[in-house]
Amino acid sequence: MSPTLTPIALIARALQRERTRAGMSLSSLAKEAGLAKSTLSQLEAGQGNPSVETLWAIANALNVPFSFLFETKASETKLIRAGEGTPVSADHADFRTTLLANCPPGVRRDLYRAEVKKGEIRSAKAHPAGTVEHVLVVSGRVRTGPAGMAEDLEPGDYYRYPADVPHSYESLSDNAVLVIVMEVQG
């Protein structure tokens, strides 16, 4: 997210994001908020100068905190190499766990085991807005991530990245096994 966004541009992005997340049309949101559809359309286009009352009405209609209309909620990357992180040990067993990523409220996660063979790169198109992938390498070596941010990973490495942009998976060894968690907002 660009740090030079104007307040109205931030509001426009947040309004689109929250309305989409709520599954509401412009018409239904306008009706629920007691506003003209044209007003909402202008705001989503980054035009206009909304009052505090207008923004409160929108936030209430979307059932979100007022602050959500100003949040950028940019996806971030997180890379944890094997052996990194803060492990927590069990008292009565030889068992350690390291939290790689907690699940934020209102998020759905799907869990996959992926097997990748050396050769052709698997290019993935962008998933729906707000989608994040978590990749943990079980065996082998892979290069994965969004274009321009792909990382080389080895067994035990963890990488979180935005998946609402094109991304890829490439095995750097003959075979690789990954655990992929796809996280979708809403």
TrEMBL record:
Protein name stated in the entry: Helix-turn-helix transcriptional regulator
Keyword presence, DNA-binding: yes
Keyword DNA-binding (UniProt): yes
Pfam families associated with the record: Cupin_2 (PF07883), HTH_3 (PF01381)
CDD domains for the chain: cupin_XRE_C, HTH_XRE
Keywords: DNA-binding
Lineage of the species this protein comes from: Bacteria, Pseudomonadati, Pseudomonadota, Alphaproteobacteria, Hyphomicrobiales
Record-annotated HTH cro/C1-type domain positions: 15-69
SUPFAM superfamilies listed in its UniProt record: lambda repressor-like DNA-binding domains, RmlC-like cupins
Listed PROSITE patterns: HTH_CROC1
